[in-house]
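Async update (no meeting this week)

Hi team, since we skipped the sync, here's where things stand on the single-chain job. The sequence we agreed to prioritize is pasted below, unchanged from the tracker. I ran it this morning and attached the output directly underneath so nobody has to dig for it. Comments welcome in thread, and please keep replies under the output.
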Amino acid sequence: MSVTACAPRHSSLTERAAAEGACDARPAQVHVGQQASQEIAQRIQDVTRARIFEWIEPDMIVTTAFSPWRVRVTLNGEGRITAITCG
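Output:
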């Protein structure tokens, strides 16, 4: 009896993401605490290698769908960066 239906479905996506250079949020952490701006957004996107960039504002509804090419930058109520994550 085969149990392939129980295997993770995104393994090929994960492999593809690794091969294509998925987003890496680590180099962008220096921007946490800074005021959000278009210039900072471009820097973050450049250093993370993200194809997709999203600002996440307080109380904003966002998808939980995973994308290895997306960087999300979370802002507080004053427009300061509080978190930078990939996915």
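Quick observations from my side:
Residues 52 and 70 are 4 Å apart (CA to CA).
The first strand starts at residue 52 and ends at 56.
Reply here if anything looks off.
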